[in-house]
Write a structure and sequence with these properties.
The structure is a homohexamer of 324-residue chains. With 324 residues, chain A is an alpha+beta fold. The first copy, chain A, is 41% helix and 18% strand. Chains in contact: A-B, A-C, A-E, A-F, B-C, B-D, B-F, C-D, C-E, D-E, D-F, E-F. The interface between C and D is large, with 43 and 43 residues.
Chain lengths: 324, 324, 324, 324, 324, 324
Amino acid sequence: MPRRFIHQLGPQEHVDQVFLVSQKQLRSNKNGNLYLQVELSDRTGSISGRMWNAGDFEYRGFDDGDYVRVEGNTQLFQGAMQLIVTAINKARFEEVDESDFMPLTPAEIDKLVGRLTTHLRGMNNPHLRNLADCFLLDKDFMSKFTRAPAGVKNHHAYTGGLLHHVVQLMDVVQAVRPLYPQVDGDLLVMGAFVHDMGKTEELSYDRGFAYTDEGQLIGHLVMAVGTLERKAQEAEKLSGEPFPSELVLRLKHMIVSHHGEYEFGSPKLPMTLEAVALHLLDNLDAKLHSFHLLMRDDPNVDSSWTTYHANLGRKFFKGSGKGD
Amino acid sequence: MPRRFIHQLGPQEHVDQVFLVSQKQLRSNKNGNLYLQVELSDRTGSISGRMWNAGDFEYRGFDDGDYVRVEGNTQLFQGAMQLIVTAINKARFEEVDESDFMPLTPAEIDKLVGRLTTHLRGMNNPHLRNLADCFLLDKDFMSKFTRAPAGVKNHHAYTGGLLHHVVQLMDVVQAVRPLYPQVDGDLLVMGAFVHDMGKTEELSYDRGFAYTDEGQLIGHLVMAVGTLERKAQEAEKLSGEPFPSELVLRLKHMIVSHHGEYEFGSPKLPMTLEAVALHLLDNLDAKLHSFHLLMRDDPNVDSSWTTYHANLGRKFFKGSGKGD
Amino acid sequence: MPRRFIHQLGPQEHVDQVFLVSQKQLRSNKNGNLYLQVELSDRTGSISGRMWNAGDFEYRGFDDGDYVRVEGNTQLFQGAMQLIVTAINKARFEEVDESDFMPLTPAEIDKLVGRLTTHLRGMNNPHLRNLADCFLLDKDFMSKFTRAPAGVKNHHAYTGGLLHHVVQLMDVVQAVRPLYPQVDGDLLVMGAFVHDMGKTEELSYDRGFAYTDEGQLIGHLVMAVGTLERKAQEAEKLSGEPFPSELVLRLKHMIVSHHGEYEFGSPKLPMTLEAVALHLLDNLDAKLHSFHLLMRDDPNVDSSWTTYHANLGRKFFKGSGKGD
Amino acid sequence: MPRRFIHQLGPQEHVDQVFLVSQKQLRSNKNGNLYLQVELSDRTGSISGRMWNAGDFEYRGFDDGDYVRVEGNTQLFQGAMQLIVTAINKARFEEVDESDFMPLTPAEIDKLVGRLTTHLRGMNNPHLRNLADCFLLDKDFMSKFTRAPAGVKNHHAYTGGLLHHVVQLMDVVQAVRPLYPQVDGDLLVMGAFVHDMGKTEELSYDRGFAYTDEGQLIGHLVMAVGTLERKAQEAEKLSGEPFPSELVLRLKHMIVSHHGEYEFGSPKLPMTLEAVALHLLDNLDAKLHSFHLLMRDDPNVDSSWTTYHANLGRKFFKGSGKGD
Amino acid sequence: MPRRFIHQLGPQEHVDQVFLVSQKQLRSNKNGNLYLQVELSDRTGSISGRMWNAGDFEYRGFDDGDYVRVEGNTQLFQGAMQLIVTAINKARFEEVDESDFMPLTPAEIDKLVGRLTTHLRGMNNPHLRNLADCFLLDKDFMSKFTRAPAGVKNHHAYTGGLLHHVVQLMDVVQAVRPLYPQVDGDLLVMGAFVHDMGKTEELSYDRGFAYTDEGQLIGHLVMAVGTLERKAQEAEKLSGEPFPSELVLRLKHMIVSHHGEYEFGSPKLPMTLEAVALHLLDNLDAKLHSFHLLMRDDPNVDSSWTTYHANLGRKFFKGSGKGD
Amino acid sequence: MPRRFIHQLGPQEHVDQVFLVSQKQLRSNKNGNLYLQVELSDRTGSISGRMWNAGDFEYRGFDDGDYVRVEGNTQLFQGAMQLIVTAINKARFEEVDESDFMPLTPAEIDKLVGRLTTHLRGMNNPHLRNLADCFLLDKDFMSKFTRAPAGVKNHHAYTGGLLHHVVQLMDVVQAVRPLYPQVDGDLLVMGAFVHDMGKTEELSYDRGFAYTDEGQLIGHLVMAVGTLERKAQEAEKLSGEPFPSELVLRLKHMIVSHHGEYEFGSPKLPMTLEAVALHLLDNLDAKLHSFHLLMRDDPNVDSSWTTYHANLGRKFFKGSGKGD
């Protein structure tokens, strides 16, 4: 039987297949009976699972980050789908098709790396090309850069999410740069590459997605500055000539100012045209991506409006579907 | 002798040529002596002029909005260039070359109208194409749309400024739309066209640039909504079929939300992807344009930093010019 | 047996009577059993109802906006009263007394319309009187204006609520105007009439109360401006003389600025004395009305304080009742 | 020759009459020459005066708060009228007509006190009437209450300004109270009386208007609470029965919350209906008064707009004067 | 069996001992069955208790503020410990050991009073020493001052909490004062003493902890000003010489400004060095105390991070415990 | 004749002595005549100087950062003292007494370094002691650390200002740490040392005080993180054992969060007790220092209030001087 992906599940479905599990907890209900609660995911989304009358035995049968085989039935509870689990066990190796759990296939990731490389190798500024090579040739860095998510929650939390966002942003940069000759296009391409690279260390993503201690205490804006400094020194060694100090300074500034406002954690406001452009285009790409998914996955399927998103201060209009 | 444009003038230059005059005032200095103060402009910028010991006779010799022939000497005063005027008279018709006073030549404006038309006629949605035609065929509207400035101050205040910004924004929209299939590109093109059209009535621009009473009391966001409603009715008559109500609603929403935040005078936050994209791309185009000119025209010519702009909360970095 | 109105109900009462139903939902509890949840109202308030072990049959037996006959028992749950429903069916025509569901009787509404007309016909300015007549004679408009609620939630959500608030506000305007000769009293009366009229289209109120799509995307401040423009044109036709443009401009300004601050969705701040007065008196009437009801209906009956209202940042002091 | 009042003065007028003087300063111009700068006022407004080449002798010839006889000529300087002084001397007693310097005549003040008394004696609540009498019979208090200004700057700075505002506010309270039976009208009348009484000690007004040290360090909201406590104790003695503690508490709350928001110096938000009403009606009266005078006295006499008021974030629309 | 203190309790423990009870409520669950909910506390913290199928009999068996003997079992519910109660009865006198319910023993409180007295008697300024004595000798005041909590919630809610904070703050003041000779150290000591004394009346603490009506409507900042005025008058009588008015003014200012910002309820910003220092040191002491306890008592025992505290906008880092 | 220090100068004094010069500018007055403007300073403050009718010759006679001998006369202009210069020339070596220009003598700086060293060597944690030694032994670092100012303006702009603030802060830390055993005192001492060390590169201070490009674009909070990382690596080499990663993380967090709020440029809020304490104590020391000097040097010598400081939103109370 082919897999039913999570975003395909409707209410009252019977399910018997593999999921990725996280956030397992043993809880007691009001009567003091224990139950097991887990978060189950595949590459299309996640769903909460509850197993009634479960105990220590079930709880110890698997760990967060494991693939588990789950049997159960879906139901709608307080407007959200959940899965009433009747059996949950660590999956056997041959049961798992890893591609079911990654929104991006290895081939897609390779393709993204290809586009990334093309954008970077296509820069005219030899210093920046040289600097980019220092990153591209650093296997450890690239391994992290291609695996890191763009965030730990919702639509940003998937392997390759960071790479995906960066390459998409570079595409936008390339599309827009001919229209603004006053902006240094190479600097903008390079800025798009490095602006979020601190996330490779800010987040952990080997088993589920979370913030590292350093990520929470220091943050990716500050962390990336150190990485850039080290790579600029490497670039000097590689080329045998000094890396222009103003160039590295402009890149560092783009990194620390790219959230655009103090209240969003930027210690500096954008003070160059490239920093202004990076901030706004990054914002454009991130918002169009996440708002689109908010609307696509909104549970109010028969309303022309999404639920209210308190953090954004608004609902979104999905349209009446009456065509035009 | 060829004209010295305002942005070419250095200190201690003798000048005898035509300017556009505005904001004339008769003032008295501390000793009670009167002097005449005016703002003189050409297509490259503006400069303050002061004529010492002037009186009612000089004051009545011309009106704001006239072309005047001015003789005098430039000097640097408190970091800014000004012109000490020794003679100022209404210019004779044959002395004036109008092209000196418009950053955009009629030919350039025609070219912009051509690009505008191409963008609008290229839309796939027949309703929107039809609606666009109702604007393009409205001579009175187009006359205003091609003359209006984008603002009354600084770099936005020139004939054709609105058209210039709108066409530039449309170019950006076209560049970016293939990258975001989830966004309705035609709606975004049309939104770029209409978002600021209220400025044709919010501002007056026959003699100098100013706000109309309605502009100040109601504002271009609200004013454009009425215009759009009337044009949608025209489009229905023209085509003989109803204009899709959701489509006009989406356009109206893009207009009222395009400042993006309540504090910038938008009565609604962007609640569709097209409204989100319009807000951010409009912001991008406006900021890259105006910040670029702030940096280009900054009076601190030998500093790598502009003066502090209190309304923006920052200086801008022009660079050390040491090359990279 | 006489009706027990909702605001009279105490815990542990048996109920068998007609309610207006809305927000029906089929939900499942933790054990996966379905239950039906509804909101039941009459003219004194609303109460949640839950029917355990209900299913598709019960769910399809009626629609939101229907009158339903409900049998059940009240109980206190987490500080709030709810009704445990044992039977719910569409009511027969003869079971319903519509006056039980409208806080305002038709006679009361007629009386309010009478006061509205008196206020408007009593204006000295013939242009405004003329304009007011264009509204009063428009049957479709008046039908909506007398039915629309003032909001979709809580104490503002009842048929005739808009009219009620407007007439009350006009009373205040008339009381205050002799004290402020610098304010144009007629303009203030007319402003009170039109300031919220956009709500006739912003809200839907034929079956329950909700926002229309246009209401959410554009808002009643902007919507009313178009209505006013059309009526001013009618007034010109009716009278055969031009309607003073500044007068209509001042009214439009009062509409768009009456929320008083950008953050409350006004695209303009009040810039005339009449706009300032309208904003503050509207605020006075709305707050005294709603805070009064918050205090009257507060569930903490034996406390001298209401619950904390997070959106208002405070509790209200009901008094110790120890008399003075 | 009859007096030319300050709000009648145009440019280029010769003046020789008595003014009230304040803020005298000896300054030096750029060349190091000293001049005398003073603020001259009468009951219609104030004007800056400058006496060139003045020295210590002129400076010592009078004190702030004196009446001085001034000779000089008016002129417009940077958009504002000023007086170039040629002679300034302490006025002789017989030259001064005190009524020229008080916007309110003693008769007008008496009339205001009469209205105040009528409002207070008309309250139904015997406790509040009793409390009011304790104030009215306190000669020292009433002397201050009838002399204090409502503020130290602009339109609020005149003898009797506090009384004027309070009585006007009481009139509004009386006009509005029949419309809101849920509000305790007597409490609102009494609240209007005491809300700003702390200004009698916050400000000094024997010679010009200024803040006292206590006024700046503690503020009139807090200072009035102590006064009220003492008067409530007096009222108990006077009547021989206890003053209801909740009543005095409600009054104290109205005082400390009447600025309505934390950011305006209220340590508490209004939490009773009377406190809400007092805040909004106080606001109404203060704003209609001061905005009216801003518009009336605006120096841009031939514009339909006032200058921009940065602290209010707006201009005001005076109207095109084209009639309606 | 020795008492198990609340902060020692783990899941699945049987309990049979005395607690202090508060917030008793009779509730019904979804099925309409009643249960009893209470808050149980001892000096180490508090825990929720629920008794299923309880009714009016159990509810009336004790009052809030009573000591009760409770039998039951602990369990983890939704991440928090609770107690499933099987029996609850008013405790007999001999069952109660009051020291189990006070974080501070009488001896500790006496010791704190001793330190308080030493700090106050050690001041050099005789006026302040004299004023301090008026407080220390006022038995009623001291009785309240030594019993009042510092707040009604969490770590501030315990008998003696106000005294504890004040003495700790005085210790800090004494430690820091030699380093800042520009600050009047005596004033700072006295300010530390009186800054929060309004809490003795703002809060009620005889049976559980709550705000008084006056506390909520006026607040401890304003309430303390009146107390200080009365004590300064007493000091004058005691010493027979006038109390320096500026000194009492400076103390009043320190009280009303000690929250430091308008948004935290201070009607004035600190405008003296002593007021600035008091605000910051009070902040230091309060934050180090409460953040420390947040971290110590955080339920995520195996995480290096506390839960997210929305009101503080952050988590706290407890450390990985890997040592250093 | 002994030097008259700037803070001793009154109006109308003749001056002929050496100053440090900065910000030289050639300006033209309204009549087009040039004059020279300079800022003159010694260790007690700075004063503006103007030389009328100066030209290119005078302008080129010295550079910013030179010691110059100046002859002229003081005068009060618009409330501020200035110097009308009649002669200005580069000073000869033997005319300059460097101690007149440094608020701190070399001996005082040595003493501060001594206290710094004592504080650092006194830490119990061997890792931190080791790390501190890496800084203390780095001559280049210490040379900068002992010369850097704490800011570029006003009271923070003097050689050694950074060191002065840091040592003073350490003294406070030592005084307070015994009172808070929950805080790691060594970490707080080390945090006080490194929190502002980024200023050694953020500012330039060889000739006058200014921001470096990197200082403005990146800021000292971010810059210090890189420095700390490098020193921690040195410490590892020095000691031959790994530096605890959590310890360096905690220090980095203290640096990036020490401004305490996003709006003051901290990309992270304080999330450890040491970071909270560092932020508040840093604030205490900086404010008591600068507010004290604002009050001491306030030009309103005969008022009990300073001028209004718009950036701080307040005046300061200097006291009536009537004693207490």
